[in-house]
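Expect chain and fold; see below:
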Amino acid sequence: MLHLAYWPGIRSLAPTTWTTALRTGDDTTRNNGLHDLAAGTWELGPWTWQHTVVQARFKPGDTFSLHYFQDPVTARPLRLYVNFERPVVRTRAGIDTLDLLVDLVVEPDLSGWWWKDQDEYEQGRRLGFVTDADHRMVEQARERALGLLQDRAGPFAEPWPAWTPDATWPLPILPESTILGSVPPAS
């Protein structure tokens, strides 16, 4: 199991169309990002995390990860995302995965849930970005995640602890070679 955390100020790499859409609120840019993903012409660029603390759990081989969002000041739980994705692969720079666009958003107390970005998922299917094999994998993962949620099992068995980074910790820094895209895959 791999546990990661993000908090305001952490720099990472993210698809530039996604970060532009977040900064500008421009849905056209976000939609163009799907075309870029499908065409393989997307680019990664620097992104600084904002607004929330996120704890993430990745289990090797799993086709979904969990992301627990909380307020950075009060540590109040905000939401839980089940992110459907290709299984995580370790690299020399960290981890690599591919978000398959659809998410299950769960209330912090597990009392309710809803699907997020189903329209993007369907568009990704039409464009061929989400392959038939990916789709079968996502359908199985959806059933598994909903079953675990309804049974309050696996990652839903106990509430996630409130967590905030120690104020004395320096922000993690990406190696310059990662930012420039020259990090080879792990051997």
About this structure: Residues 182-187 have pLDDT under 50 and may be disordered. Strands lie at 2-6, 11-15, 44-48, 53-58, 64-70, 77-85, 89-91, 94-96, 99-106, 113-116. Residues 132-151 form the longest helix (20 residues).
